[in-house]
Amino acid sequence: MMSQYFSGPPEVEQRKRQLRLATQINSDRQKLLSMKDVSRWVNLSSQHVYRLMATGKFPRPLKLGARRVCFLESEIEAWIAERAAERDGISNVIDQEI
Description:
The chain is of the alpha+beta class. The protein has a single domain, classed as Multidrug-efflux Transporter Regulator, Chain: A, Domain 2 (Orthogonal Bundle), CATH 1.10.1660. Helix content is 61%, strand content 12%. It has helices spanning 10-27, 35-42, 46-54, 73-97; strands at 32-34, 62-65, 68-72. Strands 1-3-2 form a three-stranded antiparallel beta sheet. The radius of gyration is 19 Å and the shape is elongated.
Protein backbone atom coordinates (compact mmCIF):
# COMPACT_ATOMS: atom_id res chain seq x y z
CA MET A 1 0.00 0.00 0.00
CA MET A 2 2.85 2.37 0.75
CA SER A 3 4.47 1.59 -2.62
CA GLN A 4 1.74 3.48 -4.48
CA TYR A 5 2.86 6.68 -2.74
CA PHE A 6 6.58 6.04 -3.10
CA SER A 7 8.37 7.00 -6.25
CA GLY A 8 11.81 5.61 -6.90
CA PRO A 9 15.01 7.44 -7.73
CA PRO A 10 14.87 9.75 -10.76
CA GLU A 11 16.91 7.28 -12.84
CA VAL A 12 14.38 4.52 -12.18
CA GLU A 13 11.45 6.79 -13.00
CA GLN A 14 13.17 7.94 -16.22
CA ARG A 15 13.79 4.32 -17.24
CA LYS A 16 10.12 3.50 -16.58
CA ARG A 17 9.05 6.41 -18.84
CA GLN A 18 11.44 5.19 -21.55
CA LEU A 19 10.03 1.67 -21.34
CA ARG A 20 6.44 2.98 -21.52
CA LEU A 21 7.38 5.02 -24.61
CA ALA A 22 9.10 2.03 -26.20
CA THR A 23 6.06 -0.14 -25.50
CA GLN A 24 3.76 2.48 -27.01
CA ILE A 25 5.95 2.78 -30.12
CA ASN A 26 6.12 -1.00 -30.53
CA SER A 27 2.37 -1.39 -30.02
CA ASP A 28 1.74 1.20 -32.72
CA ARG A 29 4.25 -0.60 -34.97
CA GLN A 30 6.11 2.59 -35.74
CA LYS A 31 9.12 2.41 -37.99
CA LEU A 32 12.23 4.28 -36.89
CA LEU A 33 14.27 6.17 -39.47
CA SER A 34 17.88 7.29 -39.21
CA MET A 35 18.93 10.85 -40.02
CA LYS A 36 20.48 9.50 -43.22
CA ASP A 37 17.16 7.91 -44.25
CA VAL A 38 15.19 11.06 -43.41
CA SER A 39 17.62 13.31 -45.22
CA ARG A 40 17.36 11.17 -48.36
CA TRP A 41 13.58 10.89 -48.11
CA VAL A 42 12.91 14.62 -47.80
CA ASN A 43 15.81 15.53 -50.11
CA LEU A 44 17.44 17.90 -47.60
CA SER A 45 20.89 17.76 -46.06
CA SER A 46 21.10 16.64 -42.46
CA GLN A 47 22.43 20.11 -41.58
CA HIS A 48 19.32 21.70 -43.06
CA VAL A 49 17.09 19.24 -41.20
CA TYR A 50 18.83 20.25 -37.94
CA ARG A 51 18.28 23.93 -38.78
CA LEU A 52 14.57 23.28 -39.36
CA MET A 53 14.35 21.38 -36.07
CA ALA A 54 16.01 24.29 -34.25
CA THR A 55 13.27 26.61 -35.50
CA GLY A 56 10.49 24.13 -34.72
CA LYS A 57 9.69 23.50 -38.38
CA PHE A 58 10.62 19.80 -38.45
CA PRO A 59 9.70 16.86 -36.19
CA ARG A 60 12.06 16.31 -33.28
CA PRO A 61 13.97 13.03 -33.19
CA LEU A 62 14.07 10.38 -30.51
CA LYS A 63 17.45 10.10 -28.85
CA LEU A 64 18.72 6.52 -28.88
CA GLY A 65 22.17 7.14 -27.49
CA ALA A 66 24.85 9.75 -27.02
CA ARG A 67 25.36 10.17 -30.77
CA ARG A 68 22.36 8.44 -32.31
CA VAL A 69 18.90 9.78 -33.09
CA CYS A 70 15.98 8.42 -35.05
CA PHE A 71 12.69 9.75 -36.32
CA LEU A 72 9.23 8.22 -36.31
CA GLU A 73 8.22 7.48 -39.87
CA SER A 74 4.65 8.64 -39.20
CA GLU A 75 5.87 12.08 -38.09
CA ILE A 76 7.99 12.49 -41.23
CA GLU A 77 5.04 11.41 -43.39
CA ALA A 78 2.84 13.97 -41.61
CA TRP A 79 5.45 16.70 -42.18
CA ILE A 80 5.54 15.88 -45.90
CA ALA A 81 1.71 15.90 -46.02
CA GLU A 82 1.71 19.35 -44.38
CA ARG A 83 4.10 20.65 -47.05
CA ALA A 84 1.79 19.27 -49.76
CA ALA A 85 -1.25 20.84 -48.08
CA GLU A 86 0.52 24.20 -47.95
CA ARG A 87 1.38 23.88 -51.62
CA ASP A 88 -2.18 22.93 -52.52
CA GLY A 89 -3.58 25.81 -50.47
CA ILE A 90 -1.33 28.28 -52.26
CA SER A 91 -2.11 26.85 -55.70
CA ASN A 92 -5.86 27.06 -54.96
CA VAL A 93 -5.52 30.79 -54.18
CA ILE A 94 -3.59 31.35 -57.41
CA ASP A 95 -6.21 29.41 -59.41
CA GLN A 96 -8.99 31.55 -57.93
CA GLU A 97 -7.23 34.77 -58.91
CA ILE A 98 -6.74 33.73 -62.54
